[in-house]
Structures are given as structure tokens and as C-alpha cells.
Here is the input.
Amino acid sequence: MDINLLKFMKTFLYYTVISNMESLGDKKGMLKNIIMQLHKGASIEEIRKDAEKILKELTPAEISEVEQEMIKEGVPREEIHKLCDIHLAVFKEAIEKSISPPKWHPIYILMEEHKILTKFANHLKEILMKEKNLEEVKNIVHHFKEAEKHYLREENVLFPYLEKHGITEPPAIMWMEHDKIRDIKKNIYKAVEEENFNVLEENASLLIETLSNHFYKENKVLFPTALKVVREDEWKEVRKQFDEIGYCCFTPEREKVEYEKEAQAKDGEIKLETGHFTKEELEAVLNSLPVDITFVDKNDEVKYFNQAKDRIFVRTKAIIGRKVQQCHPSKSVDVVERILKEFKEGKRDVAEFWLNIGGRKIHIRYFPVKRNGEYIGTLEVTQDITDIKNIEGEKRLLDL
Here is the structure.
């Protein structure tokens, strides 16, 4: 077929689809079609006009929803990620939103850290282009290492809240970019150790480019989306969890926040500081641990033991309420008494032993259990560590 005719048919089909979709008012469908055209090789200039027109009528949340739908329809997440920079080149004017969260707000904190990290990356490049001061480079590297808390707060707090509100794919893509940033920084750290300035300069330039693109996507797309979908009452809980993870040494001073009382557990559930269980769930979790645990209360009475699948030492319900001293042979009682006494007095944080039983290495540890600094009991943890001792090298999640 004549190449010009083929091109005409492709263009005709594309604009026919666009016209039909526009007549139906399906703006999100039109955006999806445009992204697919980019995916199939259409140039930015071919679709720029229609893309800008559509995106002026879409919110960041709707743009995110389109990408999520495409993932569900079989477009690999990696492909969406590859297209992300092209999307931004086309959609920049349409999606750019000016947001000004208050100074206590988690998004404000993240955006301020973006500014500071960008300055550090640019400063690193400037140093390498001039005097190559290794001590100053090491100081910047220290700040890059501190920046890990920035990414952890996003991945472990902000992203889960977005996912609760149906925004799942953009956080996944941002996490992929976090890992790319981490890889670049690892190369920088290694180059500093080896004083390899060629590799250092190459990765410093790559870091500036990567951070610039990544921060733009978060500041102009992800964060406005978050502000739209996450409820006001949830933001204080986000901030509380940010505080628990901690901040970077360069994070600006933060306004204090008054936190609301935590929600009560549902009927029949056990409310804990970091979550809640039904009784059945909690029991199943404790029994699924690959260790034997026994809890002795502050009065030295056995209060609980789990029923792990392959218990190492026998435990029966008859011991509940029994003094722990009576659970050991007389020759060991003095040692048990001494350990408990030192736990109660705060003189010891752990007592551990290891035995060979049936050709297996058994590790036994005792820990004082405290609540608000007050001793409330002792936890015994017993584990078969034979196979653990034989582990060498690495096996990552992706190796499964």
C-alpha cells in the first residue's frame, strides 16, 4: 500500500475516533485514546492541540484515573512510566496547578524538601565543575542519605492514603522513580568512596535531570490530586505518621499540629496502637509466626503462649497462671530469678541461649516487656535458626 495513503488512513481514523468521542462528551476516553496514540508512535505535535483542549477540562484525579484504567486494560505499568515524560511535555500547561497548602501540611513539607534537594543536586554539579572539593561533596552526600526519610514518608503514608481513595497507579509509578533515584545515588556514593570524579559527574548530571522531572510530576500532578481526594480530617493523621517516621536534617521547621482522638475499634475488634484485629485474626497471626512465644506477666505468672505449627518446646493450657519458676527444673530456677530481677530493675535488655537439639540449632531469647517505661512482663522467644545460619549472599523479592 502507498505509504502516503497509509498515513492518510491512519490520520483519518484517529481524528474520526476523536470526533466521535467528543460528540459523546467522553473526555477521559479521548485522553485514553491520545495516550494510546502516543504509545503506538504518534508524534507529540500530531496530538498536542487535542490533548491541551481535553486536559483543560480534566482534573489531576481524572488524569490519574485514565492511567489506572489503562493498566487494568493490559498496558504494562512500565509502558505508562515510559510515556510519563511524553505526557508531561504535551500536558504541561493543562495540568499545571498552583497549590499553596498551609505550613503544617504534609504536602507543604514535601514541596519544601523538593526545593532543598534540588539545590543540593545543583550545588553538587557546580562543585564538580569547579574545584572538585571532596569534603564538600561528602557533605552533600550526607544530605542525600538523609533524604531517604522523604521517600519513606511518601511510600508508607501518602501513597497508601491515595490508594484508599482509588488513586493506585500514579503512586506505583512514583515509587518506581524513587528506586531509580536511589540507584543513581548509590552510584554517587560509590564514586565518592573511590574518588572517581568522572562517574561522579555523570551521575550528578543524571540526578539533576531525574529529580527535576520527578519533582515536577509530584508537585504538579500527584500532590494536587492528593489535595483533591484525601479528606481534610485525614491530613492530620498523615502528618502524625510523617512525624513518626521522622524528617531529614534539612527539613524546615514545621508548625505543630493538634491531633484528633483516634477512632474506636469496631465492635468485636481489638484496637491496637498501629491497627486492629478481630480475636480470630490476632490469634491466627500469632500462631503463624515462625517462632514459639510465651508471655509471663509482671507477677511472674504465665499469661499466654502461641500455638505455632512446629513448636519446639511443649506448652499446654495447664501452665496458664502458673509461676514461671515452676516451669523450669530446680537447677535453673536461680538463673530464671536473676534474669527476671535484672529485667525488673532495668539492668538487662535481653538474655539469650542456644542449644543443639536433634541436630538443629535452637536460639532462645528473653526480653523485658515495658509499657511507658514500666515493666509489665517478660517475653520468651524460641526459634530454630539452623537454616538461617546457612544463608549466604542475597535473595531479593524480585528473585521469587
